[in-house]
Amino acid sequence: MFAHGPAYSAIVAALASAAPDAELVAGIDARGFLLGGGMARELGVGVLAVRKAGKLPPPVQKCEYTLEYGTAAIEIPDASPTLRGRRVLVVDDVLATGGTLGATLELLERVGAEIVGVTVVTELEAFGGRARLESYPLTSLVRL
After folding, report:
1. Which residue, 11, 53, 74, 90, is the most exposed by fewest CB within 10 angstroms?
2. Would you say the C-alpha torsion 128, 133, 135, 139 has a positive or negative sign?
3. For residues 18 and 15, what is the distance between their CA atoms, to the nearest angstrom?
4. What is the CA 104 to chain-centroid distance, rounded?
5. How many structural domains are present in the chain?
6. Catalytic residue, candidates 31, 87, 110, 132
7. Which string of DSSP letters, residue by residue, matches the chain?
8. Which residue in 42, 68, 123, 134 is the catalytic one?
9. How far, rounded to the nearest angstrom, does the alpha carbon of residue 87 sit from its chain's CA centroid?
10. CB 14 within 8 A of CB 85
11. Does 31 participate in catalysis according to the annotation?
């Protein structure tokens, strides 16, 4: 879908429509970057890259989380003053267990951002990630 212009445009527009009042789009490493950049442009707002640990120069804000096979961590630039009170729309390509999305939401809230929506292209229902994110407005374009 990323290599097909009309499909990419349609997906970006559909995801962006989940929170038209967002002030910032946070895209999760790595396909979330591609979606987040397009969504930010669609909404006329900025974009924030949520990276896997060790990819950003310090200082960073970090959140560690448990996966079904170990642990991981995500980071954002230490930009707390610029994120405090901002209305953020979070995007990733797939929702499975909700671990990465949950950690991203925790991290953004820790620095004072207001989560106005969570969007994914595909939700794998059998993994139960939606239950982990039940306190957030969640939009998935395809549920399998």
Report:
1. 53
2. negative
3. 6
4. 7
5. 1
6. 31
7. -TT-HHHHHHHHHHHHTT-TT-SEEEEETTHHHHHHHHHHHHHT-EEEEEEETTSSPSSEEEEEEEETTEEEEEEEES-HHHHTT-EEEEEEEEESSSHHHHHHHHHHHHTT-EEEEEEEEEE-GGG-HHHHTTTS-EEEEEE-
8. 68
9. 13
10. no
11. yes
Domain containing residue 71: CATH number? 3.40.50.2020
pLDDT of residue 80: 58
- Write out the two tokens for 45: 């707002």
pLDDT of residue 67: 77
Q: Assess whether pLDDT exceeds 90 at residue 139.
A: yes
Q: How far apart are CA 60 and CA 14, in angstroms?
A: 31
Q: Does the annotation mark 106 as catalytic?
A: no
pLDDT digits (tens, 9 = 90+) for 58-107: 899 999 998 777 889 999 988 656 899 999 999 999 999 999 999 999 99
Give the mean pLDDT of 23-28: 96
Greatest extent of the chain over all pairs of C-alpha atoms, in Å = 39
